[in-house]
């Protein structure tokens, strides 16, 4: 039982959750669900906002410091009566009355999270502490978007949630990997110590429209390169694997986790696994058969394999991804072509 608890399973919190603020019971308070999305101007966050805004009972507040996100991703909601956008850095405390917090704020692309590693770890640790403090104060349920990176360079394949991982604590990726591991620890400590209602999603590689075109992640890189007629840069050895989830499937999984009864951690990802060479061949075949594929140097500590075991997501959330890579790539291509201003050749 002790081991189960330390894995985050079947954990019974020691305290009941804090009462929501008395303001909620005030006469003027509407029955709406008020939802905070940190990092809501980013790639996954903005798609999550689109989905949450479809429900007329939801009011959505986004906080973002625009490090990797942009107002443009939210332009359809700016000025909407159920939507608010706040420029704010989560490393600073925040006070807003909300019922749910989706805590996504953190750069996800290795290029960006390595750019200022001290800031990345502050965002993960102090940012998560601040959002947990807010959840405690207003009695909100909080969902953390953790990552498959908590498994590091995994020795168990596919990765199940009870695998503790193989992470280099002092490497160049550790500001992100270890930052998210501490964020998960904080979530469980607040849950056990203060009765906060928590949800943890371990997100595997996600792709789709609105990814930053030059953010260095592999799907966005290969697509932009194929469209621009530039060689696809496969980082050595090319046999390393990833599993790619389309963003609408991801958003569906996150909302089910938030609305369900399970704390997690739960893997949310698509188990379809590809080597980076296979991914390059697929993009070449689908987008630009004339493009070259070249090998380039890799970066340190690159995980050799990654594939989610999604048994828990299937059983506990009734969730599994619907969109295969070959169906998702054309949807992303349309968006990239529009933004790059490059039409299809035929
Ligand atoms: P993204 O970089 O597009 O979005 C992150 C957003 O957070 C951006 O809008 C950015 O400006 C904002 N942000 C960063 N630091 C902040 C701070 N200190 N204060 C306020 N806002 C801040 O990344 P994404 O792909 O949308 O990822 C969203 C979340 O999902 C992240 O927590 C990431 O770790 C997690 N995740 C993503 C993937 C993936 O494949 N996309 C995989 C695993 C985990
Ligand atoms: N990668 C690649 N070419 C690129 C960018 C990335 O071959 O232009 C590889 C990278 O070495 C890694 C994989 O693609 O093995 C996924 O990298 P990404 O940065 O997208 O995500 P993460 O490493 O965080 O899973």
From TrEMBL:
Presence of keyword DNA-binding: no
Subcellular location: Cytoplasm
Compositional bias segments (type: Polar residues): 1-13
GO terms under biological process: D-xylose metabolic process; UDP-D-xylose biosynthetic process
Domain of life: Eukaryota
GO cellular component labels: cytoplasm
Family annotation (Pfam families): GDP_Man_Dehyd
InterPro entries: NAD(P)-bd_dom (IPR016040), NAD(P)-bd_dom_sf (IPR036291), UXS-like (IPR044516)
Keywords: Cytoplasm, Decarboxylase, Lyase, NAD
EC identifiers of the protein: 4.1.1.35
Main enzyme class: lyase
Disordered: annotated segments: 1-24
Catalysis: reaction(s): UDP-alpha-D-glucuronate + H(+) = UDP-alpha-D-xylose + CO2
Molecular function per GO: NAD+ binding; UDP-glucuronate decarboxylase activity
Entry annotated with the keyword Transferase: no
Residue ranges of domain NAD(P)-binding in the record: 36-331
Entry-linked Gene3D superfamilies: NAD(P)-binding Rossmann-like Domain (3.40.50.720)
Main location: cytoplasm
Protein family per UniProt: Belongs to the NAD(P)-dependent epimerase/dehydratase family. UDP-glucuronic acid decarboxylase subfamily.
Descriptive protein name: UDP-glucuronate decarboxylase
Source organism: Handroanthus impetiginosus
């Amino acid at each position: 039982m002790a081991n189960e608890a330390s894995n985050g399973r079947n954990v019974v919190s020691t305290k009941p959750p804090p009462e929501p603020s008395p303001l909620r019971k005030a006469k003027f308070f509407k029955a709406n669900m008020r939802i905070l999305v940190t990092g809501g101007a980013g790639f996954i966050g903005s798609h999550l906002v689109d989905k949450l805004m479809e429900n007329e009972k939801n009011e959505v507040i986004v906080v973002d410091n625009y490090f990797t996100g942009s107002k443009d991703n939210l332009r359809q909601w700016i000025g909407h009566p159920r939507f608010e956008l706040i420029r704010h850095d989560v490393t600073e405390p925040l006070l807003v009355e909300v019922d749910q917090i989706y805590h996504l704020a953190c750069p996800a692309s290795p290029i960006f999270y390595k750019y200022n590693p001290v800031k990345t770890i502050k965002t993960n640790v102090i940012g998560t502490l601040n959002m947990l403090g807010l959840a405690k104060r207003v009695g909100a349920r909080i969902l953390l978007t953790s990552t498959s990176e908590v498994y590091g360079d995994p020795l168990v394949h596919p990765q199940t949630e009870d695998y503790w991982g193989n992470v280099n604590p002092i490497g160049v990726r550790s500001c992100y990997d270890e930052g998210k591991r501490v964020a998960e620890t904080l979530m469980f400590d607040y849950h056990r110590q203060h009765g906060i209602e928590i949800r943890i999603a371990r997100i595997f590689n996600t792709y789709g429209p609105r990814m930053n075109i030059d953010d260095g992640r592999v799907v966005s890189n290969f697509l932009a390169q194929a469209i621009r007629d530039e060689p696809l840069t496969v980082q050595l050895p090319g046999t390393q694997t990833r599993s790619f989830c389309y963003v609408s499937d991801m958003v569906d999984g996150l909302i089910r986790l938030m609305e369900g009864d399970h704390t997690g951690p739960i893997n949310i990802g698509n188990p379809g696994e590809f080597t980076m060479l296979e991914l390059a061949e697929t993009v070449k075949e689908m987008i630009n058969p004339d493009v070259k594929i070249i090998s380039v140097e890799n970066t340190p500590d690159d995980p050799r394999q990654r594939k989610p075991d999604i048994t828990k997501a299937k059983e506990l959330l009734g969730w599994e991804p619907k969109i295969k890579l070959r169906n998702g790539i054309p949807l992303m291509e349309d968006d990239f072509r529009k933004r790059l201003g490059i039409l299809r050749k035929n």
